[in-house]
Automatic annotation (TrEMBL):
Residues 69-79 have a biased composition (Basic and acidic residues). This is Uncharacterized protein. It comes from Archangium lansingense. Residues 54-79, 127-146 are annotated as: Disordered.
Length: 146
């Protein structure tokens, strides 16, 4: 019997892990808690979709003519020893295939695509919900707000 999910490890700095935790808390409600893995996958699938890579067309939708010339939201390059935290991301293979294709197109490592996507997601959610005090308190580098 095969599993209906895959796990990937995303290595992040401790401050990035804290930002993800705060974002999960800001997006959670009394009835539902947003998990870190779910947030990372949701953000990465959204970015992949904006680039034309979807679970339906993971190799890239030829109908997407507005793909930008580059993806400018990747996290900075780091040395392996600089990572402080490891997050286990659980994703459905359909979602993961689209995200992997988008990361390859963007010419960034998968973990950088996940981190850049979540920072972009945070910036967009802050703009969409300016009255959420928890979102307001989250600092996102300015380049992710453009």
């Amino acid at each position: 019997m095969s599993r209906n999910f895959k796990q990937k490890t995303v290595r992040v700095y401790a401050d990035e892990a804290l930002l993800i935790e705060k974002l999960c808390d800001a997006l959670s409600t009394p009835d539902t808690k947003v998990e870190m893995s779910t947030l990372l996958v949701t953000a990465a699938v959204e970015e992949a979709t904006l680039l034309g890579f979807t679970p339906a067309v993971p190799t890239g939708d030829p109908a997407v003519a507005t793909r930008p010339p580059e993806w400018k939201y990747d996290a900075p390059e780091r040395k392996d020893e600089s990572y402080g935290e490891q997050l286990s991301v659980t994703a459905h293979p359909l979602e993961l295939a689209a995200v992997e294709q988008a990361a390859a197109w963007a010419n960034v490592k998968l973990q950088r695509f996940f981190m850049g996507s979540v920072l972009r997601f945070a910036a967009k959610r802050k703009a969409a919900d300016p009255n959420n005090p928890k979102l307001k308190s989250i600092k996102v580098p300015p380049r992710f707000t453009k």
